[in-house]
Amino acid sequence: MTQGDTPSTGSTPNTQIRRLPERQMHDRAALDALLDAALVAQVAVVDEGRPYVVPLAFARDGDRLLVHGSTASRAFRVLAQGVRTCVSVTVLDAVVVARSQFHSSMNYRSAMVLGAFAQVVGEDKDHALHLLTARLLPGVDWQRPPSRKEAAQTSVLALALAQWSVKASAEDSPQDDPSDIDAPVWAGVVPLTHTWGSPRPAPDLPAGVDRATPRAILDWPQGRA
Question: DSSP H helical segments within the chain, as ranges?
Fold first, then answer.
């Protein structure tokens, strides 16, 4: 599938999960929730025969995924050509400590999106940059907007959410072998939470600028759902 195709999951060999297929989630809402919870995506690029995986901040805009970067970036130059790619997003929720090393695992939510990026231009680019800023810096409205030169140096790409898969694990206890259940060792689930640390003001704030953390930043969510 390419951009403009009907959103679907599990309908092709590329999106059907074969390893532990019971963990595949076919609901589009599961994909949206995961993409709205994460801040960084891993984007695959092949340049001159060499594969690279590039971490990029992103935002979901309805049925597409937005990324932005420098027009001088090798990865963005390649992706802007419309080559096929794979985008992976993962949120780790817990480490599962089993009685055996083999059965220890993780609770997670993970998605893969297949397709090709397209260049975003004109008013749509302005909208995309605004949305990316609002997603990555929620409530921050005091910054200077990009100059014409800065905007020209920024590439924005969009990937249609047309071919994707979501896989999740949410074990509430380890899945040990029956022969290990009576082993005299600790087993359980260790949740992982994502929280913001204490904001640090820039050391070069000019005189007269309040060094207290703005309310908008204090209101940032303590973790992603």
Answer: 28-37, 74-79, 122-136, 148-152, 215-218
pTM metric for this prediction: 0.85
CA angle 64/136/208 to nearest 5° reads 150
Q: 166: domain range?
A: 8-175+205-218
pLDDT in tens, 69-122: 999 999 999 999 999 999 999 999 999 999 999 999 999 999 999 999 999 999
Q: How far is CA 206 from the centre of its chain?
A: 35
Rg (CA), the chain: 21
Asked if residue 36 is part of any domain, the answer here is: yes
Q: How many domains does the chain have?
A: 1
Q: Does some domain include residue 14?
A: yes
The secondary structure element, H or E, covering residue 145 is none
